Each structure stands twice: as structure tokens, then as C-alpha cells.
TrEMBL record:
Keywords, sorted A to Z: Coiled coil, TPR repeat
SMART domains in UniProt: TPR
Coiled-coil regions, chain positions: 191-218
Protein name: Tetratricopeptide repeat-containing protein
Keyword flag Nucleus: no
Species: Chromohalobacter canadensis
The UniProt record lists the keyword Transmembrane: no
Xref: InterPro entries: Phage_P2_GpM, TPR-like_helical_dom_sf, TPR_rpt
Annotated Pfam families: Phage_term_smal, TPR_1
TPR repeat start and end residues: 166-199
């Protein structure tokens, strides 16, 4: 286990390296140390075929990057950072959407790119990977609503494929429905369908429209009775 003193050193060193780099690519001893660790961890992951096992390994190694990330976010001024962007993706992979968002805010603010190996922009990756994680859940999760709403705000206006944006609206619909907000859910499901007719929300729309119609009819009948 890393000592508190070592953790403090890593955080302070990362913050200083980020300040020194300005808006140029990251450099310095601490960054190169983390790059080397990233390379070894990436090799370890590449040697594993099981997705479930890969996720378990990422959960195991991600805490090793926490102090570095915290330092960069504290002192950074937009330097391109391979380590930071990889941690963003790994946090999404393990379901840590809030942790990914802490990096995503910084990356989108300064226009950091995910790397040459990716075809999608940072905004598109954040939207699609977070949406895919939410869609993979066995049940809708209202606790994701705030994070998904922030992702929508952060990436508003960013150019990406309509199918990717549709996934986000579908997950927002699911989260609103789980939070007991059917009208908001319906709005997002309809938007998902507008963006991609194969988004898989037609039955959700039909069901919510039917439920809201019944609810409105019941409210009207109750009002007439009281009158």
C-alpha cells in the first residue's frame, strides 16, 4: 500500500508537472513514470481475453493513478496527457461515471484529444461509453441521472454521430423513468427516436404515452368529481 507521504508527493509532483507543461504536451519525470506504468498495465490488459477479468484488473490498478489525476486536475492548464485520457476511459469501463466526469470536464474545457488510436472525439467517447455502461445495466438506475445530465450539458453542440447522441437520450429516458419522471423520460425517448429510428425506444414511447394518457384521464376525472 502506498504511504500517505508518497501519495502526497505524487499529487504535488503531478500538479507541478501540469503547471510547467502549460498547454504543451505533458512531460517531466512524474509523467514519464506514469507513462511507463500505463504501458505495463496496458500490456497486462492486452494479455487477457476475458472482458470480465479486464474490468477486474482495471478496478485493481485504477487507484494507483488517483493521486496523479488529482494533481493534474488541480494544476493543469490543458496539456495533452495520454495517462489522463486513458484513466478517463478505464473509469468508464468499471462503471465509475462520476470519476470519469471529473476528467471529462477538464478534457472538454481544454480540448484534450483521446489519442491517435481513437476515431471518435473526446466528447463522443464520453457520451457513447457512458451511455453504453448505463444501457448494460439490468435495471434502470435513477442514481445515474445527474451524471448523464451533466454529460449532456458538457457535450451540447459537440459534433458526433446522431446514433451516439441517441444512446445518451435513451439512457436519460431510462434514468428519468426510474426517477419517477415519465414526461421527461418520454421527451428523451422521442429525441432518441428522432436521431436514430433504430434506437430501440418505440415500445418505451408507446408505453409511456399510454400511461400518461391514463394518468391525465384519471386526473381529469378526479377534478370533475371535486368540482
Amino acid at each position: 500500500m502506498t504511504s500517505p507521504a508518497r501519495r502526497h508527493f505524487e499529487r504535488v509532483s503531478a500538479a507541478q508537472a501540469a503547471r510547467d507543461a502549460g498547454d504543451a504536451p505533458m512531460h517531466g519525470d512524474e509523467y514519464h513514470f506514469m507513462q511507463a506504468k500505463l504501458f505495463e498495465d496496458y500490456r497486462r490488459l492486452k494479455s487477457v481475453q476475458s472482458i470480465e477479468r479486464k474490468v477486474a484488473i482495471k478496478r485493481e490498478i485504477l487507484p494507483d493513478y488517483a493521486d496523479y489525476v488529482e494533481g493534474v486536475l488541480e494544476g493543469g492548464q490543458g496539456a495533452q496527457d495520454e495517462v489522463l485520457m486513458r484513466v478517463l476511459l478505464w473509469r468508464i469501463d468499471v462503471g465509475d461515471i462520476d470519476g470519469a466526469l471529473s476528467i471529462g470536464r477538464y478534457a472538454l474545457r481544454y480540448g484534450l484529444e483521446p489519442g491517435d488510436q481513437f476515431q471518435r472525439s473526446t466528447a463522443a467517447i464520453l457520451v457513447e461509453e457512458a451511455a453504453d455502461q448505463a444501457l448494460a445495466l439490468e435495471a434502470d438506475d435513477a442514481s445515474l441521472l445527474a451524471a448523464l445530465q451533466e454529460i449532456e450539458r458538457l457535450t451540447e453542440g459537440a459534433d458526433m454521430h446522431d446514433q451516439i447522441r441517441a444512446k445518451l437520450h435513451k439512457t436519460l429516458g431510462n434514468a428519468h423513468r426510474a426517477a419517477g419522471e415519465p414526461q421527461e423520460a418520454l421527451t428523451h425517448f422521442r429525441r432518441a427516436l428522432e436521431l436514430n429510428e433504430r434506437a430501440g425506444v418505440k415500445k418505451d414511447i408507446e408505453k409511456l404515452e399510454r400511461e400518461l394518457k391514463q394518468q391525465n384521464a384519471g386526473d381529469q376525472a378526479s377534478g370533475d368529481h371535486q368540482a
